[in-house]
Amino acid sequence: MTPLGALEALADPQKAVEMARYHKQKRRVLGVANPAIDQLVRQWRGERDVPERVALADELWKTDVFEARIAAAKLLIQARLRPDDGPAWRLIASWVPRFDSWAIADHASSAGARRLVADPARLDKVEKWVGSDHLWSRRAALVMTLPWAKLPHPTAQQSAERERILGWAESYVPDQQWFIQKAIGWWLRDLSKHDPERVRAFLTDHGQSLKPFAGREASKYLK
Questions:
Q1: Which of 11, 51, 164, 210 has the highest count of CB atoms within 10 angstroms of its CB?
Q2: What are the C-alpha distances in Å from 25 to residues 16, 100, 113?
């Protein structure tokens, strides 16, 4: 059975209708829950080396089936992809301009985040998304760099990279689109657990320009 066939075998038409409505999908939705996708992905990952996983992720993405795209991203969510994670990173980056909904974008961004941590020089590529006309590319620049917000004891280099990303967030403040404001709030919320003073400084400078819900999100853990 093909990987897509394995997903199709788990299809639930009633659940598919509900999921398509919730995720605002126009593409085909099978109605397969995340735990079932996870189980298949674990099986596929165990049967394939890294190049084969990348090839399968590409194949699944190209089907344009909702769960297949989720599975494609999950196949590449690993801290280490040896011996060379370059093909995986290039594939993930090629997906970004095609993001059109939060669920697929978030799973793919989780995979991309591992590749950025593995090679922070790739932030140069991500920075090009900041000025994109594509909403989801701009959002991905923050979602994919969340590991830098979560560092409890950053090195000097990591602190500089964190400031670089915060500069992107600052440039997004005038953008009032919900998903962009949500991403700013999310990034600051996670950072506040480790560097509350930096978040307070950001909110002092820009808090009045954020949408209220984004400000509340950013300050959720500030005392």
A1: 210
A2: 10, 9, 24
Alpha-carbon gap, residue 49 to 223, rounded angstroms: 47
pLDDT tens digit string along 148-195?
A: 999 999 999 999 999 999 999 999 999 999 999 999 999 999 999 999
- What percent of the residues of the chain are helix, what percent strand, and what percent coil, each to the nearest 5? 70, 0, 25
Q: What are the angstrom distances between the C-alpha of 3 and each of 8, 59, 94, 205? A: 9, 9, 21, 50
**Cα–Cα distance list, 100 to 4, 68, 114, 160 (Å):** 21, 15, 21, 31
Spatial contact of 137 and 129, defined as CB atoms under 8 Å apart = yes
pTM above 0.90, yes or no: yes
Q: Which amino acid is residue 44, in one-letter code?
A: W
- Report residue 122 as tokens: 């790739």
166 contacts 202 by C-beta, under 8 angstroms: yes
Compute the C-alpha angle 188/190/194, nearest 5°.
100
